[in-house]
Amino acid sequence: MTSLSIVIPVFNELENIGPLVHETVSHLRGRVAFDIVCVDDHSDDGTRDVLTTLKAEVPELRVLLHQQRSGQSAAIRTGVKHALSPWIATLDGDGQNDPADILKLLAARANANPQVRLFAGWRVDRKDSASKRWASRWANRIRQRLLRDDTPDTGCGIKLFERAAFLDLPYFDHMHRYLPALMQRAGWQTVSVPVSHRPRGTGQSKYTNLGRALVGIRDLIGVSWLIQRSHVTPISELNLGRKP
């Protein structure tokens, strides 16, 4: 069994996914037993052809294909469900996450409390447009005030989490943006780890500021409701033992 599965959701990243996969392999091979699961969310730009070539070149790579467009959260969940490892690292398919930071997240896990089941990347120096940074800054402030998840950056694509804990969370579209709050709702601890961030090489972002804001308002209300309507129940097992 591998000790780490890298899940990369991909949609129309024809020129970005190849370099990202090779870079990930160069950082991890020989340091940790891993596999890479690329989930193509029904790309229509030739990304699947690139993944087919990569599959022949990279023995650690597995490729899963959505037969219809389902969104980033669905692609992440597909990858996690088919992963071979009990721990998952995620990367965005656009190459803006630095795969070298996976090792930083693993180092944070090695020194953390066992109750921490999510290590979330924190982009301390974002390389996005000013408008995108401004929109993200306000969204983070509103989210933190409403959900009180003590997480400065939930939109960062690079994360490390336990597979079983993730699959136990309620699933909904865009859930990947609320993983710290959902993990905390389930009774686990989360830690934010500063990571680097890079400009997008080619292609276009799949989200607009307005579209993300409209969806985010609805999701925030839903996640807030989930947190208010749930609690964690401590469990112990009765063990009578045997009399001598």
Annotation keywords:
single chain, 244 residues, alpha/beta, Spore Coat Polysaccharide Biosynthesis Protein SpsA, Chain A, seven-stranded mixed sheet, 8 helices, 17% strand, Glyco_trans_2-like, Dolichol-phosphate mannosyltransferase
From the spread of the alpha carbons, the general shape counts as globular
CATH hierarchy: architecture:
Alpha-Beta Complex
Q: What's the story with the biggest beta sheet?
A: 7 strands, mixed
H and E order: EHEHEHEHEHEHHEH
Whole-number total of structural domains: 1
Overall pLDDT confidence: 88
Distance between the termini: 41 Å
- Could you please say which CATH topology applies here? Spore Coat Polysaccharide Biosynthesis Protein SpsA, Chain A
Q: Residue share in helices?
A: 25-40%
Radius of gyration: 19 Å
Find the structural class using helix and strand composition: alpha/beta
**Level-1 CATH class name:** Alpha Beta
| Count of DSSP H/I helices | 8
Strand order of the largest sheet: 3-2-1-4-6-5-7
The CATH H-level superfamily is Spore Coat Polysaccharide Biosynthesis Protein SpsA, Chain A
Which spans of ≥5 residues are poorly predicted at pLDDT below 50?
Answer: none
Report the strand count.
7
Residue share in β-strands: 15-25%
Keywords: Cell membrane, Glycosyltransferase, Lipopolysaccharide biosynthesis, Membrane, Transferase, Transmembrane, Transmembrane helix
GO molecular function: glycosyltransferase activity
Domain Glycosyltransferase 2-like: 5-166
Pfam families: Glycos_transf_2
